[in-house]
Amino acid sequence: MVINDRIRNFSIIAHIDHGKSTLADRFLERAGLVSKVTEGQILDTLSLEKERGITIRAHPVTLFMKARDGFTYQFNLLDTPGHVDFNYEVSRSLKACEGAVLLVDATQGVEAQTIANTYLALENDLVIIPVINKIDVKDADIEGTQQEIQEILGFPPSEILQVSAKLGSGVDELIEEIVRRIPWPSGDSDAPLRALVFDSHFDTYKGVVVYVRLKDGRIRAGDKIRFMSTGKEFQVEEVGIFELRMVEREELLAGEVGYLTATIRDPLDVMTGDTITSVDHPSFIPIPGFRKNLPMVFAGIFPINTNEFEELKKSMEKLHLNDPAFSFEVESSDALGFGFRCGFSGLLHMEITMERLRREFGQDIIATVPNVEYEIELIDGSVIRLDNPGKFPQDTKIRDIREPVVDASIMMPPEYIGNVLELIQTRRAVFKEILYPESRRAIIKFEVPLQEIITDFFDSLKSVTRGYGTLDYEFKGFKSSDIAKVDILINKKPVDALSFMVHREKAERTGREILERMRKVIPRQMFEVNLQAAIGSKVIAKERIVPFRKDVIAKCYGGDVTRKRKLLEKQKEGKKKMKQIGNVTIPQEAFFAILSVKGDTKK
Predict the structure, then answer these.
(1) What are the backbone dihedrals phi and psi of residue 463, each rounded to the nearest 5 degrees, phi first?
(2) Is 276 in contact with 225 (CB distance < 8 Å)?
(3) How many angstroms separate the most distant Cα atoms in the chain?
(4) Same domain membership, residue 23 and residue 102
(5) Cβ distance 516 to 543 under 8 Å?
(6) 523-529: long-range contacts, CB 8 A cutoff, minimum separation 24
(7) What is the DSSP letter of 410?
(8) CA count, 13 A, side-chain hemisphere, 303
(9) Which residues make beta-bridge pairs with 384?
(10) Residue 265 Ramachandran class (φ > 0 left, ψ -120 to 50 alpha, else beta)
(11) So what's the pLDDT on residue 588?
């Protein structure tokens, strides 16, 4: 058996904004890939990542580090996202690792995603190295943070390291601990090939670039490979490792992380979590794949120009390659034509996906109202699941509607407990308990319908806690609720793309808010435009857009008043006819108006 004891595969995991990408920069410096004058998060290559200051995708990089024992070690590092919406990115990265560096901000302490990522790492049997970051900051509470890590996460003080990723202090000690604590990968380079596909992206010239972690065997250019799940075979053209760019190598061995290309032109041929084996000396035991991501939020995405449907489809296939948490299927709308019903991990994930489609693929798109998936029991006893309001059956055919419910927890300083309790009361939440892991940290646990937190809950939470509140949630199941489908009508014609689902007690207020916003963005016509929100045949809210009025009697200077009346009546008849045959142009802003409806944070 050939074992390379100089390889260390690990991820950096943490809550959002705790310094993962900055620490990765210091590793790049120590490996000599960048100079000390380089600024910014180097591994955050997407323009969106640089603008928002967050990591969206997991980024692999191979570093060659010289340790104090004189040997050079190969570090395969995966920098991961911290936001709850990108939790699936973290789970994919951890499957390719033996260890994880758990980073905790000394000014913020243990937060929601710190706990979630710790459990995720433990589920994958990884060795965790807890590290307190930002020890150089004036407000740093190193002792308090160490106590939280000890009490909440269960790590003894002797295992907790301290670093300043910004200044680089403590990084050399961390490198030594990675060498000492994280086990080298097991695997036999002489055994039949088994490689885990943990990511991929599309290259215009090379086709699909497949990111792999070799568990057994070796792979080099010219080898014939087979994807176990699909049975499709290809010939490898190039293999290599990730530095700051893809660097070609002669071969990859068991335990290594790298990439391969094989002129794979169809993005659907590659599935994340699949196992690659050799055609000539195959293995028949696939590597256990990671859990399939379940979309939580759904929305329709349509091309503004209906002729660009096929281009949008190709773009989505390529995007799905390196973001398997994003799913899509074809759907059609009377108002918007052919498009796609898309699934996302959360609203931020949806926002980022749409922005990537616009920027990276040049797509001009429009999105419908985000919805969750409902479970509907029909009169005949059958149960169906629907995420598209336009496909909901008639009320007379429905026995019960069940909406998705999540177990949620909000972590914040104790002084904001009152504000947070007031906020969750407006979201139909069921309070469970308040925990005090230590004096400066409180956790509120509650059960809440998913629909109530997918639109503006994060913004409201940050507002009422001055940025200190963090939310974590997990799907619990479906629960019966009084849900109603609200149709938006323009001149008594329903616009299917604007329909939405809402709890019945909030239907009137939500419908009124939407119509008020639409009234401001739909341009005035030469005829009157009536906007209505309705549940079935019952109108629950309405607005009116007044028409332009031409002064037809301006040329009348005195004379008989009957002439003026005749001209006004003629104008009235003309507008009535226009209203019957006229089409109202709905601008893109009208759809955004629904997306921007903010929840009321007051009682």
Answers:
(1) -65, -50
(2) yes
(3) 110
(4) yes
(5) yes
(6) 523/585, 523/587, 524/548, 525/578, 525/582, 525/584, 526/575, 526/578, 526/582, 527/575, 527/576, 527/578, 527/579, 527/582, 528/575, 528/579, 529/490, 529/491, 529/584
(7) E
(8) 17
(9) 376
(10) alpha
(11) 59
308-319 pLDDT, tens digit per residue, is: 899 999 999 888
Element holding 459 (H helix, E strand): helix 457-464
Q: What is the CATH number of the domain that holds 405?
A: 3.30.70.240
Shared domain for 16 and 156, answered yes or no, is yes
What SS3 state is found at 580? helix
- Residue 186 falls inside a structural domain: no
Average of per-residue pLDDT across 91-103 = 83
Give the Cα separation of 440 and 369 in Å (integer).
39
Predicted confidence band of residue 368 (pLDDT cuts 50, 70, 90) = confident
Q: Helix crossing, 112-123 with 87-94: angle to 10°?
A: 30
The reply to whether 523 and 440 lie within a common domain is no
Q: Which of 318, 341, 367 is where one domain is finished?
A: 367
Residue 290 belongs to a domain: no
Give the 3-state secondary structure of 73-113: EEEEEEECCCCHHHHHHHHHHHCCCCEEEEEEECCCCCCHH
Both tokens of 179, joined, read 């060498």
Distance CA 167, CA 99 (A): 24
Other Cβ atoms less than 10 A from the Cβ of 561: the count is 10
Examine the domain organization and report whether 381 and 353 are in the same domain: no
Indicate if the alpha-carbon torsion angle 59, 65, 68, 72 is positive or negative: positive
Q: Output the six-digit token pair for 581.
A: 């045959």
What is the rounded distance in angstroms from the CA atom of residue 209 to the CA atom of residue 446? 43
Rg of the chain in Å (alpha carbons): 28
pTM of the shown model: 0.69
In a shared domain, residues 271 and 157:
no
Question: Is pLDDT of 85 > 80?
Answer: no
Does one domain contain both 106 and 172? yes
Band of the pLDDT at 565, cuts 50, 70, 90?
confident
- How many Å apart are CA 359 and CA 402, to the nearest integer? 37
Reply yes or no on whether the pLDDT at 300 is more than 70. Answer: yes
The SS3 call for residue 177 is helix
Asked if residue 291 is part of any domain, the answer here is no
**CATH number of the domain that 517 lies in?**
3.30.70.2570
Same domain, 164 and 39: yes
The Cα–Cα gap between 386 and 393 comes to: 10
Domain that holds residue 351: 297-367
574 confidence band (pLDDT: 50, 70, 90): low
Indicate whether 215 belongs to any domain.
yes
Q: Which of 181, 210, 234 is the last residue of a domain?
A: 181
Give the chain's domain count.
5
Q: pLDDT above 70 covers what percent of the chain?
A: 83
